[in-house]
């Protein structure tokens, strides 16, 4: 499993961000080929301090190659090009292989 994690700092207009993200951006992003699961939240909390992020998006792919192919696809390129339309605070994009654990 490989995860794509997108962190969004505080935007200039939080209401515009929420509306645009849900009605316009997510429908683009979830069209990426190879996407197995996705989730997002606007309710970011931090222990002890104010959270440095306004929103988060997580996407699961089978492996790094599937994630790269999805992001480089026409659908992934459209989603990436759409980010400046709502993320006025910028964006931090991370990806990593998921290490499973058991107790």
From TrEMBL:
Highest taxon listed in the record's lineage: Bacteria
Which residues belong to any copy of the EthD domain?
11-88
Coiled coil start-end? none
Q: What is the native source organism of this protein?
A: Kribbella yunnanensis
* Residue ranges of the TM segments: none
Q: What is this protein called?
A: EthD family reductase
